[in-house]
Specification:
The chain is an all-alpha fold. The chain has one domain. Helix content is 86%, strand content 0%.
Length: 260
């Protein structure tokens, strides 16, 4: 019995030490990347291509998810409110939910799989094939070349993708309310405007900026730490999606407790 308890404690202690080491290494990577911002001649030429890859290429999947989220929210709101609350509150629920929660969070979770895993696999492949070491040999700053443009591109493009998703989600909920719920446009707009505050949009933007930094930062961290060939690349991509998704949900709770 004593051996089992000691073994369990040793396992927990080992995992805790590993987690703390990982947090320290992630912080060191963050500080080193911030210092690499001064090498604008290295990262600036790669910023626009990364904005296109991370932001523009992510718009279709984000809009697809937002469309059906708005439809489902409108239908469920009608089902929940029927007979108890005026029907125009469907617009209130769809608008508030899409702006404050589902638009930013669902988009970020989707892009954690699309963008984060892609970055991790790309940088992981470069690491195991020694391309990162080659950059250092050629006197290039690998963080300025690989990390900074990706993180900055996500910080700039995630809010745009999220705002587009929110707009389309509300639009699809509006159309659903008109076609399937026997509502009029004035009723839906009345509910949409009822509790709307401009701060809601800024709240969504703040969250999306932090989500973009987390998704790309985690992808770069695990990508640059990849080992053991193709197997390690797959493991890094999986870890990126899992850790980025967990951090997105933690940040979501943090911003709600801090800003609302």
């Amino acid at each position: 019995m004593l051996e089992r308890v000691s073994g369990a404690l040793a396992l927990v202690g080992g995992r805790t030490i590993t987690a703390l080491q990982g947090m320290g290494q992630a912080w060191a990577l963050l500080m080193a990347s911030a210092a690499s911002l001064r090498n604008a001649d290295v990262w600036l030429p790669h910023l626009l291509p990364q904005m296109a890859r991370i932001g523009v290429a992510s718009v279709p999947i984000a809009l697809f998810i937002a469309t059906f989220t708005g439809i489902v929210m409108s239908l469920q709101a009608s089902y929940t409110l029927t007979g108890t609350i005026p029907v125009y509150f469907v617009g209130t629920l769809v608008g508030k939910t899409m702006i404050l929660e589902l638009g930013p969070v669902l988009t970020a979770l989707t892009l954690a799989g699309r963008v984060g895993a892609n970055i991790s696999a790309e940088l992981g492949t470069m690491r195991v094939t020694e391309q990162v070491d080659a950059l250092e040999t050629l006197a290039y700053d690998p963080l300025a070349y690989l990390v900074v443009p990706r993180v900055l591109a996500a910080i700039l493009m995630f809010p745009i993708v999220v705002l587009l998703a929110i707009a389309l989600g509300i639009g699809s909920g509006w159309i659903t309310a008109l076609q399937l719920l026997d509502m009029s446009s004035p009723e839906f707009v009345k509910g949409l405007r009822l509790f709307f505050l401009p701060w809601d949009v800024w709240f969504a933007v703040i969250k999306s900026v932090s989500f973009g930094a987390v998704v790309t930062g985690v992808g770069c961290y695990f990508g640059l730490r990849t080992e053991r060939g193709a197997e390690g690349v797959g493991r890094s991509a999986t870890r990126t999606v899992v850790v980025a998704s967990m951090l997105i949900l933690c940040l979501d709770a943090f911003w709600a407790a801090t800003l609302l």
